[in-house]
Amino acid sequence: QLPLDDIARLADLHPKPGHIRFQYGTAGFRTLGSVLDSVLFRVGVLAGLRSKKLDGKTIGVMVTASHNPEPDNGVKLVDPRGEMLEASWEAHATSLANAASTEDFLQAVDAVVKNAKIDLSKPAKVIYARDTRPSGPSLVASLEDGLKAIGAETRDAGVTTTPILHYLVRAINTKGTSAEYGDDSEDGYFKKLSGAFKQLVSGKPALPPLVVDCANGVGANAVEKIVPYLGDSLTFIPHNTATATPGALNNACGADYVKTTQKLPPSLANELKSGERGCSFDGDADRLMYFYIDARNQFRMLDGDKIAALVAGFIVELVKNAGLEEKIRVGIVQTAYANGSSTKYLADRLPVRCVPTGVKHLHHAAEHFNIGVYFEANGHGTVLFSPETQGTLASYEPSTPAQSTALKHLRNLVQLINQTVGDALSDLLLVETVLAHKSYSGVEWDSLYVDLPNRLVKVLVADVRAFQTEDAERRLVSPRGLQGKIDALVKRYEGGRSFVRPSGTEDVVRVYAEAVMKSQADELAFRVAGLVY
Ligand code: NG1
Ligand code: ZN
Predict the structure, then answer these.
(1) What ipTM did this prediction achieve?
(2) Is the pTM here over 0.90, yes or no?
(3) Which of 262, 282, 451, 462 could cross-link 67 (Cys pair, CB 3.0–4.6 Å)?
(4) How do beta strands 125-130 and 58-63 pair?
(5) What phi and psi values does residue 476 have, to the nearest 5 degrees?
(6) Mutate to test the pocket of ligand 1, among 503, 506, 512, 514 (most ligand atoms within 8 A of CB)
(7) How far apart are CA 422 and CA 163, in angstroms?
(8) What b-and-e string marks burial along 272-291, b requiring 16 or more CB atoms within 10 Å of the CB?
(9) 386-440 pLDDT, tens per residue?
(10) Three-state secondary structure readout of 365-412
(11) 194 burial via Cβ count (<10 Å: 0-12, 13-18, 19+)
C-alpha cells in the first residue's frame, strides 16, 4: 500500500546528484548544503517510515551541521525518547540516500518496508526543525516534500536548537503518561530548565554575569529567550549573536573553535578581564566549552572533561549527603579523547568507562549506571538518571534536614538536565549551579586536576578504511604492525599516550597525543602522524 505514484512524482523533483555517495554517520548526513536536496527528501520519507514502524510515535528531524562551516548542512533523525536514531536504521538511511534514480529509490523504500516489517497502515508523525544556516529553508522544503510523499502528519518547530528539538520529541511522546517530560513547547522547555535552576541556586550569592559566545548561531535565540525566565538568578552577556550575518556562523568563534585552537575567540579579546569566566556554544547549541582568564592574563580552557569532573563530583556528594550512597551508583563515560589527567582524577573517585567516539556509544554506556555522566572532551554531554533512580528519588524519605536538602537538589537536577542529548544551555545552568554551590571561580574549578598537554592532528591518507581499531578506538588492529610502532614511540615520552583512528565525520585519520610537556605532545603527535602517512 505504498503511495508509489505520490512518492515517484515528488521524488522526480529531487534527483540525486551523480557521483556522490552519502553516508549516515555519527552526525547523520553531513556535507555541503548545496548537494543535500535529494537527501532531505528521502529522509522525509524515511522519518515517516520510522514513525509507522513505531506505531505512529513522533519522530524528530533536525537540519543542522552543528559546528561545521556555514556552507555545510546536514540532517539527523531523533527517535521517540529524544535519542539518536537506532543504529540498525542508519543502514536504511544510507541505502535510501544512495538510490541512483526514482525507480531505484522506490525499490529501496520497498526493501526497507519489507526488511523492517513496517505496517504501512499505521500513522506517521514527524516534528522537524533547523538551525540558522542560509541553506536551511530550501532543505526544509525538500524534507516537507518527502513527508508529504509518505503522508506524514507534521509539525514545524521552526528555527531552534538541536537539544530543544530532542526535548520536544520526548515531551510529545510522553504527554499524558507518568513519564511526562514537560510541556511540548519552547515555553515548556524554558520553564522547566529555569524553574529547576532558580530552586537550585536560591539562597546562594549571585554569580558575576556570564559571557556567552553564541557562535553566531541558533543558540543566540535560546539565550535571548530564556533571559526573562531566569529573572535575576543569572545574568548573561551574550556575544556573537549575529545569526543573519552571512559567513559569521562558527567563524572564529564557538565551542569547536575554542577546543581545537585552545584559544579565546578574537571577538572576546577585550570582553574578559583577569578572573572572569565565559563559555562558548557551537552552531546548534549542543556543545559547551567554558574558559576564564587567569591572574597572569592567560586564557584557560575548561573543556568537556573539566565539566564532567565538576558535575560528577557534585552529584556524588549530593547522593552521599542524601544518604543514598548504597542505592545509587554514579558512573562516568568518556572516549579516548578524554585528557589522561581527567581519567585519573575521575577513576580515583568513581567507575569510569571508555567507549568509541559518537554520542550513541556514550549515551548507551551511561544508561548502565544509576546516574551516568558523559561528556566528550569537545563539550558534548549530559547526565542520565535511570528510571529506577528517578523512582528512588521521588519516593525516598530523608531522615535529617541535610538529607532532605540534598534530595531536593537531586530532584531539581533531574529537571534541569536535558537527558535526551547534550544541551549547551542546560549544561551551562548545571555548571553555574555547581559553581554557585561551591563558591568556585574558574580558578578553583580548573585546579581539580591539571590537564596534560595534548595535540590532535588530521592526516589525509589514501584509504581511511584501512584503519581499524579495537579497545574503544585506543588501539589499531589494521594496518598490521602499525600499533607496535606507535607503542615503541609512545614509550619514549614521559606521560606519553597516543592513538590513531579513522574519523567518522571526515575522510581523514585522526592522531591524538599527550605528554607531560607541550613540546613533547606536539612532537609525539607529528611522529605518529609520520608513521600513519
Ligand atoms: P570524528 O570525526 O569521528 O572524530 C567528531 C568528533 C566527535 C563527535 C563527532 C560527531 C573529535 C575529535 N571528534 O568525530 O567527538 O563530536 O564529530 O559530531 O572531536
Ligand atoms: Zn553541535
Answers:
(1) 0.95
(2) yes
(3) 282
(4) parallel
(5) -90, 135
(6) 503
(7) 7
(8) beeebbbbbbbbbbbbbbbb
(9) 999 999 999 999 999 999 999 999 999 999 999 999 999 999 999 999 999 999 9
(10) HHCCCCEEEEECCCCCEEEEECHHHHHHHHHCCCCCHHHHHHHHHHHH
(11) buried
Q: Residue ranges of the alpha helices (H) in 150-182?
A: 162-174
Q: Of 505, 508, 510, 511, which is best to mutate to test ligand 1, by the most ligand atoms within 8 angstroms of its C-beta?
A: 505
Which amino acid does the sequence have at 506?
E
Instruction: Provide the annotated active-site residues.
Output: 66
Per-residue cell: 530: 609520520
Whole-number pLDDT of residue 240:
98
In angstroms, the Cα distances linking 168 to 100, 243, 447 are 34, 23, 37
The verdict on the CB of residue 102 being under 6 Å from ligand 1 is no
Instruction: Please give the number of the atom of ligand 1 that sits closest to the Cα of 502.
Output: 3
The Cα 462–Cα 480 span in angstroms is: 16
End-to-end CA distance of the chain: 52
Q: Which residue has the cell 525507480?
A: 103
Segment 270-325, tens digit of pLDDT: 999 999 999 999 999 999 999 999 999 999 999 999 999 999 999 999 999 999 99
C-alpha cell at 309: 569532573
Cβ-based neighbours of 518, under 8 Å, separated by 6 or more: 453
Residue 483 per-residue DSSP state: H
**Beta bridge mates, 387:** none
Which domains, ranges and CATH numbers included, belong to the chain? 4-159 (3.40.120.10), 187-301 (3.40.120.10), 304-446 (3.40.120.10), 454-532 (3.30.310.50)
Q: Where are the alpha helices (DSSP H) in 209-354?
A: 219-230, 255-261, 304-321, 340-347
Query: Cβ(339)–Cβ(305) under 8 Å?
Result: yes
Say what the pLDDT of residue 296 is. 96
HSE-CB of 367 using CA atoms within 13 angstroms: 11
Q: Give distance in angstroms: CA of 30 to centre of ligand 2.
A: 12
For residue 521, give the C-alpha cell.
605532545
> Residue 68 and residue 65: Cα distance in Å, rounded?
6
Residue 282, all three cell numbers = 557551537
pLDDT profile of the chain (533 residues), mean per 10:
92 96 94 98 98 98 98 98 96 98 98 98 98 98 98 98 98 96 98 98 96 98 98 97 98 97 96 96 98 97 98 98 98 98 97 96 97 98 98 97 98 98 98 98 97 95 96 98 98 98 93 98 98 92
On the 0-12 / 13-18 / 19+ scale of CB atoms within 10 A, 72 is buried
Alpha carbons 14 and 485: distance in angstroms, whole number: 49
